[in-house]
Amino acid sequence: MLSFSGSLRVFVVVEPCDMRKGYEGLSALAGEVLGEDVRSGAIFVFGNKRRTRLKILYFDGTGLWLMSKRLEKGTFSWPKAVESGVGKVKLRAEALAMLTDGIDLRGAKMRPWYERG
């Protein structure tokens, strides 16, 4: 299980991505398509069309991380595009952990006592 701090900004790219892309290609997508700076300290999550693979791009202040995961069975529960047509969805760090662990985010909610301000 991956663990990230609660204050971390997480952006999930809603549209499928070419999983052959590496550091430069995914950095360009974050900048051009999402309008976000990859060096901002946020995490960027990209998935393939079948939702069986994902890549995470993260700049930790000293260098760029590229993490990937391929599922042996099943698919990731991927967020849908919002009404405004924006190609990204902002998640909390806890939601990213649930997404990578195979929890369906649709209908899942945080308990009132867990909400942070």
Describe the strand arrangement of the main beta sheet, using strand numbers. 4-3-2-1-5
Question: What is the element string, with H for helices and E for strands?
Answer: EHEEEEH
Structural class: alpha+beta
- Rg for CA atoms: 14 Å
Approximate helicity band = 10-25%
Mean of pLDDT: 83
Largest sheet: 5 strands, mixed
Number of strands: 5
| Low-confidence runs of at least 5 consecutive residues | none
Number of helices: 2
Strand content: 15-25%
Shape: globular
Report how far apart the termini are: 25 Å
**How many domain modules?**
1
Keywords:
alpha+beta; 117 residues; 23% strand; globular; five-stranded mixed beta sheet; single chain
Could you explain how this protein is built, in words?
The protein is an alpha+beta fold and 117 residues long. It has one domain (10-104). The chain contains 2 helices and 5 strands. A 5-stranded mixed sheet has the order 4-3-2-1-5. The longest helix has 10 residues, at 23-32. The mean pLDDT is 83.
What's the quick description here?
With 117 residues, this protein is an alpha+beta fold.
Describe the SSE topology.
Layout: E1 10-13, H1 23-32, E2 43-47, E3 53-59, E4 64-70, E5 88-91, H2 93-100
Parallel strand pairs: 1-2
Antiparallel strand pairs: 1-5, 2-3, 3-4
